[in-house]
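Input sequence (86 aa), recorded before submission:
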Amino acid sequence: MNAVSLNNLWSYLQGLSLTASNQRWLSERLIEASTSNRVSSEESARAKKLNALYGVWSGKDGENMARAIQEARQSDYERELVPING
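Predicted structure, token format:
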């Protein structure tokens, strides 16, 4: 939306006789919508990055790695970190 549209929307909302609880309800819905849009954008960006890497792990190796990642995410235990250098 551009600035003019937003100003018109704001003027319209100010013209309504909203109670404090109505205003709170409206503000909560707007915040929820903006949060879900942000999360969707972040998930989309993450998916694009993973899809760009998928060609490197395509085929059986990629399927095995995807399965291992999903299983690790579903498990509820923490793995012990072992240093590579011994």
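Checked by second reader. The chain has three helices and no strands.
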